[in-house]
Amino acid sequence: MKPQTWLTIAGVMISSFISNVPRSHAQMISESSLPAIASQSQLYAYNFDRGLLEELSKYEQNIDCEASNLSNSTHYQTLINWGIALQNHQRYQESLSCFEQALAINSDVEQAWYRQGISFSHLRQYQQAALSYQQAIRLNPNEHTAWYNQGNAYKHLGQYEQAIASFHKAVELEPDFHVAYYQLGKVLSRMGQMEAAIAAYQEVTAINPEYYRAWYNMGSLLNRLERYSEAIAVYQETLKFQPSQHQAWYNLGNIHLKLKNYSEAIAAYETAIQLKPDYSLAWNNHGVALEALHQNQQALQSYGKAIQLDPSYEKALNNHHRLLLLESGSNPILSNVIEAE
Predict the structure, then answer these.
(1) DSSP-assigned letter for residue 7
(2) Rounded-to-integer distance, Cα 60 and Cα 315, Å
(3) What distance in Å separates the CA atoms of residue 95 and residue 174, rounded to the nearest whole number?
(4) What is each CA distance from 269 to 93, 262, 304, in whole angstroms?
(5) Cα four-point dihedral sign 116, 122, 125, 131
(6) Is the pTM higher than 0.70?
(7) DSSP secondary structure string, 232-271?
């Protein structure tokens, strides 16, 4: 496997596909963005031929690929390079004109189809992206990143069987392609195939042990399967590589709460709260754990903090009201309510 040099493009909200120029051209391979735990936003990382990129950037502002403005002698590779320059400046809609014009000149250029798919993916036009990747794969079926990007387009379209087949092909061609295993795990999880998803995430961590998002997702699945001791160990791996991941601390606290390890639960919730002070769910469950240890006044404070952060938070409201009645000598009907993962 070729060594790759990553160039992070700061401030770009991403999708989960790869940007690559086929090996017969200037190399511009990129890794998939790393999906955030609680959102779809990610950061692109590109492996650019920096010399080519700097050369293209010199005239990026003046690029115009409209057919009426092109010379009859314009070479298709020039149009592709212009499109790549526009992509680098997130001008994806404009880049499509360059790739379309290149393909009008020569429809058998893998790079043009591939880059067209990239622009469609960024524009969230996933059906068109999938069709572009299909053409790129027709011309070069051995390009693993094309299969990977096609899999992501199918994933966004909800065509999960096709996505799984594409990701499998990507890792068949590039066995160390851990991000393909990661996306495979996400699709399998969506289909309810949790054991298969766990196996995919295990492949990720075997290839790249520091890929904490795979550890986190694996822990969540083990938690759902009530394999709590395994989930605890996996969340601890998550936190070894990303100790500031507040949701992992929160989920770890929830497992300890289910197992009645109340002191451990309190410690985990307190770390989550330290990392995210406005985490109302953690404040509520912190109160539940404190109440289980008969530390009722501290529990009331935690419920109160959850309510302060979210005045409509019904579970915290119920817990606070019930505990107040209990402290006043009444016999409340409601039992304490935790917030699950």
Answers:
(1) E
(2) 55
(3) 29
(4) 45, 10, 15
(5) positive
(6) yes
(7) HHHHHHHHHH-TT-HHHHHHHHHHHHHTT-HHHHHHHHHH
